[in-house]
Amino acid sequence: MNTVFTNAKAGMAGVDKEHVQKVVYEMSKNSPHFKNEQRKQKQTDERIAKMKQRAHGISQTDLAGLTRSMDAKVAHLETTRDLSRTWLTVDMDAFFAACEELDNPALKTQPMAVGGIGMISTANYVARKYGVRSAMPGFIARELCPQLVFAKPNFSKYTAASRASRVIFADYDAEFSAGSLDEAHLDVTDYCNQHGLSGADVAETIRRRMREEVKLTCSVGVGPNRLLSKVAADMNKPDGQYVVAADLPGIKRFVAALPIRKVPGIGKVAEQTLAAFGVTACQGLLDHKGLLAGLYSPISMDFFLASGLGLGQTQHSEPVADGEVGRKGISCERTFGPISKTGELEAKACELAEKLAEEMADEGLKGKTLTLKLKETTFELRTRAHTSSQFISSVADIRNVALRLLRAEMPIAIRLMGLRMSSFQEIRTLPGQRSLSAFIQPAAAGSATAGTEQPLKQQGAAQDFSIAFQHAVDALPDESEDEEPEDANGAPEPHQSSYSMADDLQAQSGRSEDKWREAPLPQQSDLAAPRIAELPSTDLQQSCTGSVGFGQFAAQKRKRPSGAVTGHKRTGIEAYLRPAA
DNA sequence: ATACATACC
DNA sequence: TACTGGTATGTAT
Ligand SMILES: Nc1ncnc2c1ncn2[C@H]1C[C@H](O)[C@@H](COP(=O)(O)OP(=O)(O)OP(=O)(O)O)O1
Ligand SMILES: [Mg+2]
Ligand SMILES: [Mg+2]
Ligand SMILES: [Mg+2]
Prior knowledge:
The structure is a single chain. The chain is an alpha+beta fold. It is 37% helix and 14% strand. The longest helix is centred in the first third of the chain and has 25 residues, at 32-56. Strands 5-6-1-7-8 form a five-stranded mixed sheet. It is built from 19 helices and twelve strands. α4 (95-103) crosses α7 (155-170). Bound molecules: 2'-deoxyadenosine 5'-triphosphate and magnesium ion (3 copies). One magnesium ion binds at residues 261-264, 266-267. The chain binds a DNA duplex through α2, β3, α6, α12 and β9. One of its GO terms (biological process) is DNA repair.
């Protein structure tokens, strides 16, 4: 049932997947974590059942209408296609592990993972042969590979290597966008034209320079847009490159048989829900567009169709405007041995408040919304938020709000607590004050971007609006297309030395392996990772549940707001017209 | 504005 | 024995 560790990732060719599945199962069953995974899987199964039911209720007439609507959407998307750009996605091979091998070459021939018995962030390709992977707990990895060597993470190495790699990227695209420490997206069109080179030529050059100057290998994907270059970058890992021809036949050839899971944004859940309707390769997203339109939101459909057509971002995002904070949130969370005593819980909240305040101070951030995250010992998640009337940043203010949110949840037994601040005050840039562009990084995480990559969503209920209606509404002209009113210039901030949540209320009537943390480095990207989601469903609530991740740094950033995608012209959306209701 | 789910590195 | 931490987005309420 758990397909997480055997899917869609480089280095898994030739791995005995059945064996890996069995070991993971044997090591996990009976654990609270496993129970939680089962609970989540049940949710997915129920979701699929509801979608099947909905699909069953779609008449031939409905289907015909939905299909026509999607035909129009496809036709429009097709008009946005721009094959004139050349994009490169560069992604380091087994990045953290490779950095560790740099300082300890003996590790190169041994199976090695970066992390500990609790969690692994990545493994070298020798270890991957045994099924060892990112996000796999170390004790399971050791069961799969008893000789596995564990290396402790050392973020300063990774940031140094990343910085060095970015110096290279800047030579080919001064505005490249960083997808993470180990990945970047480059529009090398101008460079190619100026030097009479192909994308493949530049890819070869970058790979050579990376070997020589950074002493690490990377893989490069080349294509007419960022979606294609990104997917292509994984095709010949490690130390390889792959070119998606910049013509319609070449793109169709590449995309048609591509497993949907390879598309960034389609993960474990979307893969399952789509598979339930026979969609396992990207061509299926186009073949079943009518039916899918009856099951997924307009936003998801835009994303699916763009993916099926091989359309992606063709231009970089707008840089972050002056004074704007380049991020949406900042958070700190820690896992520890189970605790439930009031004193211990409050002590954790205080520590996190201090940590968060410190990180915010490093960037001069002040925010209004504080979200407390609690992971129960059962692995179920709870988040509770409060928005203050004033921007806050001090330890005292953060602690006050955090404690109040926490106290409302007790009693509770948890294994993790986290604090996240969002809704930031814009930073007033003082004359002569240069922001931290220290970390070679151009194009700050902007917002609007031309191109097509879109997101997905989740689940919902809204039975009042038929899906057909939603898709029809989505087809209306986009009114907010020509202006960017959002100026948010500012009213001077009211001052108040100390914030108290009580005032607001009145006014309104372990054990953590914290080895994987890193200094808050400037970072950004515009990686537009979709989040799938089915549509409506007459459904009720969801439970909670976990996410994944490792102690990484900042990475993704901005996403585009809404609407359809577009090559880069982004004219309004034509009216597709409603299908039969 | 709040809560939850999904996704990516 | 043991299952991360950080960031983003989409939807419903
Ligand atoms: N789930 C995770 N949790 C924490 N850190 C992660 C996680 N996944 C990846 N990382 C870190 C470690 C990786 O070396 C680094 C880059 O990720 P990624 O490019 O996906 O894999 P990789 O570089 O290790 O191997 P590959 O050769 O497949 O690219 O980010
Ligand atoms: Mg990588
Ligand atoms: Mg990567
Ligand atoms: Mg994917």
